[in-house]
Amino acid sequence: MTLRHFAGHRLVAQGLGERLFRRPGLREECAALEKEAMKELLLPGFDELVLGYRDRLHLMDEARHDAITPGGNGVFRRTALRPAGVPRLPPAARGGMRPMDRPSYGYSAADAPPPQGPVGGGPQEQPVCPRHPDRVSYVRCKRCDRPACPDCQRPTDVGVLCVDCERELARAQASTRPRTAMGGRMRSGAPVVTYTLIALCVLAYLGQMVAPQIVEQLGIFAPFRALAMPWTFLTAGFLHGGIMHLALNMYALWAMGQFLERSLGPARFAAIYFVSMLGGHTAVYVLADPMGYSWLTGTVGASGGVFGLFAAAFIVNRRMGGQVAQIGVLIALNLVITFTVPNISWQGHLGGLLLGAALTAGMYALRPKAVAGQDRQALARRSAITHGALVVAAVVLCAVLVAVKTMLLPGL
């Protein structure tokens, strides 16, 4: 009979009252059933056992099985484990342990060490903030366990940290932050720089529609007045000659910008775009004939920057092992249109394409190589300094070309 059957039998017997236990042989029958049920329940080494720990107990041998006698409330005692004639030791002789005592696997208040006070039995010192010794604080940092005053506490999800631990954790997280192929921070949100450039171009076109004379006279790039209005090397990239011109350039900027801004990082993407725009207008100035009509012709459009992004996308895909056939076909088609359709500044397109490609290739070639165990944050700083120097070198190159062209002008 299993324990479940035995428990049901015992409940029935108790429900009938004490009258049934007076029947001859009933108590012995119950004792035999209890012994059978306890055959799989008693753990050797315990004096008493409460029903319910069945899954933690082991099978007992015959000697222990024969020593079982029923007790009250589902508790069983072993009464014949001692040899005959050997009295049971009193609790004092057994170390104060009673039959129902159980071993404790936790800690109690008595296990706590006594408080450590200053030597000599004087009053205990109050905890003070290490940064502000004149301030008493009972709030401790969860990381270093040092006291922290309210000015030095930094609340976090896991508790209060001190200023030093918060800075150390910030540096550790920065060193393990994902980086782009150029060493910039990985961004997962919207391409903010791309959307900003598109918005500026749209606003500039609205300005052309509202006040065309003012906007165009102040923003259009023309070689004959480039030295007198040097800002037009960049402002002309936000002006356009019509709605179709604006729409095509903005679509190309949106398509290239979403990919490149996430691959290179916002700062490097913006640097390549503006340097390409500057390179396009520099090429227009350098290749213009001072004695011809091109010297007096104005140039507008973001095509120089867009062509630079085309070249950057080609190099990035090439370096990352991506497909370059599509972007190569796109560049080829735009070059064909540039040299076959009239009234298109091929000098600006070609200058932006070449300088954008050179700057992107230089960033890849001169980026610091990562080594296992090296501080990635320090590596990112070195990469930023190197790429910043490349951008400055590209701007200086454009300035030198403009200066050389100016010195070669007739009559100077």
TrEMBL record:
Main location, first listed in the record: membrane
Pfam families registered for this protein in UniProt: Rhomboid
| Molecular-function GO terms, alphabetical | serine-type endopeptidase activity
Q: Which CDD domains match?
A: Bbox2 (cd19756)
Q: Supply the alphabetized keyword list.
A: Hydrolase, Membrane, Protease, Transmembrane, Transmembrane helix
The segment annotated Disordered runs over 86-129
Query: Gene3D superfamilies under this entry?
Result: Rhomboid-like
Q: Where do the Peptidase S54 rhomboid domain residues begin and end?
A: 230-363
- A GO CC term? membrane
Query: Where is this chain's protein located in or outside the cell?
Result: Membrane
Q: Which InterPro entries match?
A: Peptidase_S54_rhomboid_dom, Rhomboid-like_sf, Rhomboid_protease_S54
State the Gene Ontology BP annotations: proteolysis
Locate the transmembrane regions by residue number: 192-211, 231-254, 266-287, 293-317, 324-342, 348-366, 387-408
Provide the membrane topology annotation: Multi-pass membrane protein
The family this protein is said to belong to? Belongs to the peptidase S54 family.
- The entry's protein name is Rhomboid family intramembrane serine protease
